[in-house]
Amino acid sequence: MQLEKSLVHGTLLDDESAARLQRIRLFGVMGVVGHPLYFWIWTHVFPQPYENGWLRLACALLFIPLLFPGPLSKRKWFPVYALFVITAGIPFAFTFFYLKNAGSMVWTESVLIAVMILFHFGVTFALISMVSGGIAAIALFGLTTGTGEVFPWHTLPVQLPIFAFLIAMLVITKLDRKILAEQKRQGMELALGTVAHELRTPLASLALTAQGIQNRLPSLAEVSYPDLPILQQAVERMRTDVVRANNSIELLVANSKAPQTVSINWFDPHEAICSAIAAFPFEAGTRELVSIAPSIGVRVLGNASLFEHIITNLTKNALEAIQRVGKGDLHISYEKPPRAVEIVVRDTGSGISSTVLKRMFEPFFSYPAHRGTGIGLMFCRKVLRGWGASISCKSVEHEYTEFRIRFPNPR
């Protein structure tokens, strides 16, 4: 489905999906190496009735650009090219060789494998690719049919039920995964709504208690109570935290149900970052580990309160990574590439392995496994995408982890 979505958004690979980039590169390797390799195998090791070196070479050459998805992913033509190459190199080529080899067992099994490969992308793309590639292969077969070659009608009645069963199972598997993910999402929404409802009452009670304490503080001034300023600061902090908690609940509930209902305005990301860090519940001695670069004087489009939640989530993750290894610090800085602004949240704590890094933004994936619900980074990405922004992560285990939040067209 990611490849299909890229056609809509005009980019095959966004900055936040290293796993997707790696997938495309692996398909490039498969095409560049696989076609020549199997030409040699089916020609010299296990000779088949028909092989075509020129067709194999053309497919291998077409796959070469997929070896470099990073530099090419921003090109407007690359998504369409990638779809064309995968269709030509897999369903078209495999179906053509199947027809030329009279539906032999080798090529029947190869076509089955091709179908499984296509469904790695998604149901819609797989079906469109199979149909278009199959029709093109049948057309080429008709144009190149030689003496004695016939369409393999004798094998199709036996093989079609197998193809149909495989496709049905792959579609069901894909849909089952989507249904499971949707059920989890709905469950999280229900849980969030329940928790929000249960929290509003004690928060209201805390607000009334803080107000009551504040009303009685002037009487302490009459008896020259020495800790009166400290009490006043504590009460004011309590009231501020209650208001912030209520706002957070409302924003999170609204965003989980309908992100478009959350208001979007121009705001200063530096001010939001400073506000989030000021309100963060640091443990003793940890506030000194966090530093913020000076403001660069830009404004970005989004929701300042939700952005504070994103910074809070990244700060929490970073401090936990620092705590796990007992070393490191956290620095938040800004960069201004052309027509964008990037907020860089970098910690020098435990770092993340490449295996974990590939799954960082997957729904319900948490690391370590026992920590959290796995919706924090998913929530961050969902919110930012709603504003036309993005978030990416790179890391070296035992060295650092760096998140980049990219806002387009800042003011």
From TrEMBL:
Gene3D superfamilies: 1.10.287.130, Histidine kinase-like ATPase, C-terminal domain
Transmembrane feature ranges: 24-42, 54-72, 78-99, 111-144, 156-175
Catalytic activity: ATP + protein L-histidine = ADP + protein N-phospho-L-histidine
Domain Histidine kinase: 194-411
Statement: the UniProt record of this protein carries the keyword Lyase: no
Assigned keywords, A-Z: ATP-binding, Kinase, Membrane, Nucleotide-binding, Phosphoprotein, Transferase, Transmembrane, Transmembrane helix, Two-component regulatory system
Top-level class of the enzyme under EC nomenclature: transferase
EC number from the UniProt entry: 2.7.13.3
Pfam families, alphabetized: HATPase_c, HisKA
Coiled coil (residue ranges): none
InterPro entries, sorted: HATPase_C_sf, HATPase_dom, His_kinase_dom, HisK_dim/P_dom, HisK_dim/P_sf, Sig_transdc_His_kin-like_C
GO molecular function, one term: protein histidine kinase activity
CDD domains (UniProt xref): HisKA
Name by which UniProt lists this protein: histidine kinase
